[in-house]
Amino acid sequence: MKGRIAVLDRIDGRAAAALIVDGRLEDLLIDPPGEDRPRPGAIYRARTDRPVKGQNGIMLKLGNGQMGFLRQAKGIAAGLGMLVQVSSQAEDGKAAPVTTRLLFKGRYAIVTPGARGLNVARSIRDEDERNRLMEIAHDVMDTAPDGIGLILRSVAAETDEDAIREELETLLATCVSIMAEPVDTDPQLLLDAPEADYLAWREWTDPEPDQVYEQEGSFEDHGVWDLIEGLRQPYVKLSEHASMYIEPTRALVAIDVNTGGDFSFSAGLKANLATARDLPRQLRLRGLGGQIVIDFAPMGKKDRLSVEQALKRALKSDGVETTVVGWTPLGHLELQRKRERLLLETLLPE
Q1: How many Cα atoms within 13 Å fall on the side-chain side of residue 56?
Q2: Cβ distance 205 to 121 under 8 Å?
């Protein structure tokens, strides 16, 4: 299966989308099964509840029995109403991380209340195209209240003006409506998180899919279920000999890299580089985050830099915020990864 295809389907009525590149599963988005848990992107009218000592944060009531946690909340009193947006997935039994910095994201643009200014993605370098996009932005945003900014995304380049304008007007109207909500009333969900099919349309743009399949049963027709089944196993084949095992525990995600039957001098380095290139994709597809510890195959200390650089390049294109913390005395590499997604086993219980 050559090319870049997007496959959209429904699973028990829930939206699901898979991105397949040359036969390999590159991304997977599935709406959670019948849960009210706050999801990234959702906007709430919240009320501060109680400070969390030692964490410089405060708990918030989101309504319907849901709780949020706001960091950097020193000096914020209990009982205060505010607008917040869920920033990442909540761990089981814990409050959802939220932020007061709201973003209204679309395919072509991001509207930024509280961060004024009009900006075009740096990746758009053609001056004529930048000027065209700025003209559209100025025309639409001239009617916006003070303090609302805009970022035009790279996919806006060469896009039809009417499509950009229509989205900008919709995003701006939604933003203005939400920002006008009173904050001194009961906590409530004001804007739900986007569904998987919309996220796929919004985010899978670099480059655009060659084909999109969205009829019922598309996952079965295009082998998506077989690709997903491989994610349920800890074993990941990297090459003829090299492999890695990805094993989540309660405390962290452990990665073990093996060279298998390759006993050559460079076997360890080759296996470790292959791991570095594929690990972000594996973590994304499995919905893994938090603390991650990689036990690489034996290699010389001088090779650590090459492996770390390869991993950072892969993480940069991955899109999920991940910090490479550093090497431990035992030679393990530690990562800290944002929990943007639910575990695959939560989305698709066996």
Answers
A1: 3
A2: no
Identify whether the C-beta of residue 306 lies closer than 8 Å to the C-beta of residue 312.
no
Q: How far apart are the first and last CA of the chain?
A: 27
CA 333 to chain centre: 22
- C-alpha–C-alpha distance, residues 291 and 325, integer Å: 10
For residue 231, give every residue at least 6 positions away whose Cβ sits within 8 Å of its Cβ, in sequence order, or none. 25, 282, 285, 286, 344
Query: Which SS3 state, helix, strand or coil, does residue 110 take?
Result: strand
Phi, psi of 66 (to 5 degrees): -90, 150
Axis-axis angle for helices 161-179, 127-141 (nearest 10): 40
| pTM tops 0.85 | yes
> pLDDT tens digit string along 2-29?
899 999 999 999 999 999 999 999 999 9
pLDDT at position 74 is 82
Report helix, strand or coil for 264.
Answer: coil
286 contacts 344 by C-beta, under 8 angstroms? yes
| Interval 74-99 mean pLDDT | 91
Q: What is the DSSP letter of 156?
A: G
pLDDT at 20: 97
| Cα atoms in the Cβ-side hemisphere of radius 13 Å centred on 300 | 5
Per-position b or e across 294-315, b if 16+ CB within 10 A of its CB = bbbbebeeeebeebbebbeebb
CA 187/CA 170 separation, integer angstroms: 25
In this structure, the number of other CB atoms found within 10 A of the CB of residue 166 comes to 14
Residues near 11 by beta carbon (within 8 Å), at least 6 away in sequence: 30, 219, 348
Find how far residue 214's CA is from the centre of its chain.
Answer: 22
Confidence of residue 36 (pLDDT cuts 50, 70, 90): confident
On whether the CB atoms of residues 108 and 165 are closer than 8 A, the answer is: no
List of domains in the chain:
4-31+198-221 (no CATH), 43-101 (2.40.50.140), 104-183+190-194 (3.30.230.10), 233-347 (3.40.630)
